[in-house]
Amino acid sequence: MPVEAALRYWTTRGNSDRSPTAVCPRCTSPRYEAWSRAKLQAWTLARLARLAPGGRFRRVVDLGCGTGDWAELLAPIADEIVVVDVSPGFVDQAAERLRRLSHPRWRAECCDVRRFDDIEGADLVFLGCVLTYLDEPDVLEMLRKVRSRMAPDGLVYQRDYCAARPHSKELRTDTADYFSVQRWALRYLALAEACGLRVIECRPSWWVYGDQWATERLACCGPAAVRAGSAAARAVFGAAALASRACSYTFLYSAR
Ligand SMILES: C[S@@+](CC[C@H](N)C(=O)[O-])C[C@H]1O[C@@H](n2cnc3c(N)ncnc32)[C@H](O)[C@@H]1O
Fold first, then answer.
1. Sheet with 78-85: strands ordered across
2. 94 in ligand 1 pocket by Cβ < 6 Å?
3. At the N or C end, where does the chain have fewer CB atoms within 10 A?
4. What count of other Cβ atoms lies within 10 Å of the Cβ of residue 61?
5. How far, in Å, from the CA of 63 to the mean position of ligand 1?
6. Cα(232)–Cα(118) distance, rounded to whole angstroms?
7. Which of 26, 27, 116, 19 is nearest to 66 (CA)?
């Protein structure tokens, strides 16, 4: 896979005013994108805060941070936050968000994640839609490096578009000038396990949207209503997802 083409693409894209998230060829509408991202972020944040000891992380490393909107959400539950991206434009935007928060310990670095080594002691490594731009040997090397350097009680969050078929390779259609690999979700699980990470969970995006929708709407009616609403909403969102050839998956791994 021509990883260098993806790097060139992202480096220039950071200087445009387009969001780094609007790259999916099946992008529906800006309104749906904003709705689904809000659901995903609220669900993920609640999940991570529940898993973090005392609800906080000591050191968060966000690899492929984009404009830093995830880092902005994670910063309040992190003693230290480090954001890394290959695109200088995105790194500037992420740095500006963290500066505005006046977080006491943050750092933004422009670097290819394959060459970034300062993962020492991280108890949350965040990989938001970045492994999809790397070849499989690079993915293995990255996950091995992360596993060996992160804190022994640390977590890894990964999100990526996954394919309905194993290893399908897709040319992104918004610019048609670079590749990403849409792997099978099970392939990512196998790669993570081969690197010594333990799988905590793996959820398709429609599952997350349904669960979050029910939590937001039905929390006032009690846990049984949330459970029933979540199952119904997941069935609806899942059926809609069947029509699409791929969807994003959220993976959570633990170092122990
Ligand atoms: C689809 S965006 C995701 C942004 C953000 N993590 C999120 O979850 O919304 C992919 C990001 O990964 C960055 N990226 C891709 N390949 C990279 C590499 N080899 N090293 C560092 N950053 C990379 C891009 O510049 C872009 O900001």
1. 106-110, 78-85, 57-63, 124-128, 155-163, 246-254, 198-204
2. no
3. C
4. 31
5. 7
6. 43
7. 19
pLDDT tens-digit profile of 164-220? 666 566 656 555 566 788 888 999 999 999 999 999 999 999 999 999 999 999 999
Question: 181 CA to middle of ligand 1, Å?
Answer: 14
- pLDDT given at position 146: 98
pLDDT band at 243 (very low <50, low <70, confident <90, very high): confident
Report the chain's C-alpha Rg in angstroms.
18
- What is the distance in A from the centroid of ligand 1 to the CA of 217? 32
**Calpha distance 144→142 (Å, rounded):** 5
Encoded tokens for 156: 């890894």
Query: How much distance in Å is there from the Cα of 122 to the middle of ligand 1?
Result: 19
- What token pair was written down for 216? 């937001």
Residues 63-113: tens digit of each pLDDT: 999 999 999 999 999 999 999 999 999 999 999 999 999 999 999 999 999
Residue 25: the pLDDT is: 47
Q: For the chain, what is the mean pLDDT? A: 88
The full DSSP string for 110-132 is: E--GGG----TT-SEEEEES-GG
Ligand 1 pocket residue status of 130, Cβ below 6 Å: yes
**Spatial separation of the C-alpha atoms in residues 172 and 158, rounded to whole Å:** 20
Q: Which residue has the tokens 């394959």?
A: 114
Phi, psi of 251 (to 5 degrees): -120, 140
Nearest CA to ligand 1 atom 4: 66
Question: Which domains does the chain show, CATH number per domain?
Answer: 3-24+53-204+246-254 (3.40.50.150)
SS3 73: helix
